[in-house]
Amino acid sequence: MKHSIEVDSIILNNEELFIENKNIKSIEVSGKCILNLFNCNIIDLEINIQDNASLIVNYFNNINELNSRIVVKANNKSSFILNHSFINKGKYNLNIYTDFIKEEANIVVNINGINNGGKLNADVNGYVHTDKLNNVLDENMRIINLNNGLVMSNPNMYISTSKVIANHNTTIGGVRLDELFYLMSKGIDKKEATNLIIKGFIIKIIDNKKLQNKITDLIN
Amino acid sequence: MLKIDNISVKIDQKEILKGFNLDIKLNEIHAIMGPNGIGKSTICKVIMGDPDYIVSSGSIIYDAKDILKMDVTERARAGIFLLNQSPIEIPGVTNAEMLRLALSQKQGALVPIFEFNKKMEEICKKLDIPKSFIHRGINEGMSGGERKKNELLHLWMLEPKFIILDEIDSGLDVDSLKIVCESINEYKSSHDCSILIVSHHPEILKMLKCDYVHVLSNGHIVQTGNLSLAEKIENEGYKSFSGLNKVSENTYEA
Ligand SMILES: Nc1ncnc2c1ncn2[C@@H]1O[C@H](COP(=O)(O)OP(=O)(O)OP(=O)(O)O)[C@@H](O)[C@H]1O
Ligand SMILES: [Mg+2]
Question: Among A65, A107, A63, A106, which Cα is nearest to A85's?
């Protein structure tokens, strides 16, 4: 595996990386790449996906306090998928900006977060400009809010072309009651059933076994 | 083993069951039939303790215990098992971890992994489902028929005493139906248990050698017979049953 990590910035070329407990400032992508991030501090990150390149980021963070700004630039025929899950017990400000530089690119942002009594402010801003054609933008944010946490969430789309497919949805709620009933009906008590549901919710969008296992260990 | 005495059940202010009685003894198999939307799944979920359904009067006694006072977990640990009409999926939680946790909690000790895996693999083979289901998310991406078999895997692992099968035959192809019935018959012959089954078809009731067939209407059982009653329904529909109306808004307006 050929890769180079400079201080805070990563250059990826046709590779998969697992990074833990680091601060990341920029990611430059060519070819097909996958980045798995466990408890990395992302404060101000810029991601640039070159023409025809693709990047999947699986990113979990256990948060006490974090102000995070992520800017994504997708070039011609590129693809970017962010699968971000987190548990927030303190204060989490998340601002994501996605922009299509050219045409026929794909951006998907999946966020599954647990806000456990914390204060969460999650904004996802997707831009599609007039002259940028045939791009696809998909934003999905699902938050389970526990113990009287506070959630402010804004999925924003700034779209000035009709040649785009853009979709966003946000769900904020508690643990799903049909799932709770199901697990309890197998003989699991309410507390453990809730933990299982939370664990499943957090890892189901993470497309990497090692990262899934790390998260499971952390939650257990 | 399970005695339902004169219960009334509401959901969203709408009365679904009224004056419902049912008495199931150990090792008996009872079937409930009835038109769509009449309340068959409702009674199944009420026995399991689904909090969406409000039991406003009557009692359900199971193994000499008033289960209306027990929560869902307690009912499951007492041996009640519900195989839902459309089992939900829980991605991110595997069959194995769910079952191990359930068994460990019930037994108060960690389940040895080797025996656990061995048993799971044996059951998968019997049910003709891939071993990969063991570590797959619960019902995740599974077809309707596969889900029913996956739930049967749970049944074999949890070894319940009172089994509720809500349309287990729906979504099963002919071969799968045969495998599923063989599996249930095998379970029944090796475990003391009772079964309550809901189905629209006499086929499965015959294959399981059902003892009693009940027809549900107007919120309660209006007729009880044997397998020939199921045949009669198959041939004639529900028209010939006296006083059969769907639960209608004006009949039971809360
Ligand atoms: N969660 C719910 N909210 C509102 N109404 C409900 C709910 N669950 C069931 N009902 C209503 O209760 C009635 C009985 O439903 P139930 O699912 O018990 O029918 P069923 O006899 O099992 O029908 P089927 O043969 O189609 O499975 C129906 O009119 C249904 O619409
Ligand atoms: Mg039903």
Answer: A63
Q: How many CB atoms lie within 10 A of CB A42?
A: 20
User: Does residue B233 lie in a domain region?
Assistant: no
Q: Is residue B120 included in any domain, yes or no?
A: yes
Query: Do A104 and A78 contact (CB within 8 A), yes or no?
Result: no
**Index of the ligand 1 atom closest to the CA of residue B200:** 25
Structural domain includes residue B247: no
Pocket around ligand 1: residues whose beta carbon is below 6 Å from it?
A: B 11-12, 16, 34, 36-42, 52, 85
Q: In this complex, do A187 and B51 lie within 8 Å of one another by their Cβ atoms?
A: no
Which residue reads 């005493």 in tokens? B161
ipTM of the complex: 0.93
B98/A204 touch (CB, cutoff 8 Å), yes or no:
no
Chain B residues inside the 8 Å CB shell of A199: 92-93
Q: Do B72 and A204 touch (CB under 8 A)?
A: no
Task: Name the closest ligand to CA B32.
Answer: 1
Question: Is a pLDDT exceeding 60 seen at residue A203?
Answer: yes
**Tokens 């990590």, residue located:** A5
* Whole-number pLDDT of residue B242: 55
CATH number of residue B155's parent domain: 3.40.50.300
Torsion sign across C-alpha atoms B23, B62, B33, B6: positive
Instruction: Check residue B208 and give its pLDDT.
Output: 97
**What sections of chain A are H helices per DSSP?**
177-184, 190-203, 209-219
Q: Which residues pair with A20 in a beta bridge?
A: A38
DSSP category for residue A136: E
B31 bridge partner residues = B197, B213
- What does the alpha-carbon distance between residue B58 and residue B21 come to, in Å, rounded to a whole number? 9
pLDDT, one tens digit per residue, over A151-198 is: 999 888 888 888 889 899 999 999 999 999 999 999 999 999 999 999
What is the CA(A196)–ligand 1 centre distance, in A? Answer: 28
Please provide the average confidence, as pLDDT, over all residues in chain B.
Answer: 93
A174 has which bridge partners?
none
> Does B135 map to a domain?
yes
Q: Which of A187, A200, A203 sits opposite B76 (nearest CB)?
A: A187
Task: Judge whether B216 and B38 are in contact, CB under 8 Å.
Answer: yes
Q: Whose CA is nearest to atom 27 of ligand 1?
A: B36
Domain that holds residue B176: 78-197+207-220
Any A CB within 8 A of B102 CB: yes
Counting the structural domains of chain B, the total is 1
> How many beta-carbon contacts under 8 Å exist across A and B?
74
What pTM did the predictor assign? 0.90
